[in-house]
Amino acid sequence: MKFSVREQDGVTILAPKGKIMGGPDSTELQEKLRDLIKGNTKRVIIDLAEVDWMNSTGLGIMIAGLTTMRTAAGELKLSRVTDKIQSLLVITKLVTVFESYDSVDEAIKSFTK
Amino acid sequence: MARRLSKIPHGVAFPSDQKFLAAVDRYVEQELKKAGFGKDVIADVAISVSEFVNNAILHGNRQDESKLVRLELYHAPGQVTICVEDEGEGFEPDKVASPLEGENLLKEVGRGIFIAKMLVDSVEFSRGEKGGTRVKLFKKLPV
Asked: Closest approach of chain A CAs to the CA of B127, in angstroms?
């Protein structure tokens, strides 16, 4: 798993690619999220379009990002959630916790509403 | 002690280090592809296996690299069985809290076994030859 980071309209977009299944790659992603929060980033989107699938480690990283971000008065949202990950969010009820959008642009716009 | 992924009959064995997770995942995916399983079934099985391999490394063998995790994979037309075994002290799966209830919903950890059970047709726990946990996953192809 690799990931890219970019900024658009004041929102940081973190885009992992591949699978988030634990191990060193996942730790890097988690550390990147922590760095963003420490750097006072308040608006983050995790764009999941190119994530084939993830396990509970991946969900845990997203949950940690969300809760830490909210504690710091920020927000973490999801975009382009793939079917497999959406099914994981549904069975774990995390679909009730995360805001998710069909496109990155929609997710960005949601921060200004 | 081999510091790598080693072939064993019907599977692989590897030291208890999370750096082997990606190689194990590739092994499972390749074997299921060769057996003709579709992407959706492969994803379900790979996710479930990864949960138990992670548990075997972290909780079973407590990342003691002198202890091995063994994974065996058996497939027949329309079905696959995978066994993951550690060399730990065993655990009681019934004592795992539901990740859906109350404050557990927002916990970073604790939903792996739940997810794994939801994605395959059956999960059985037993004691392995060395006293650790042996998990047997079974998945049928959708009709």
From this structure: 24
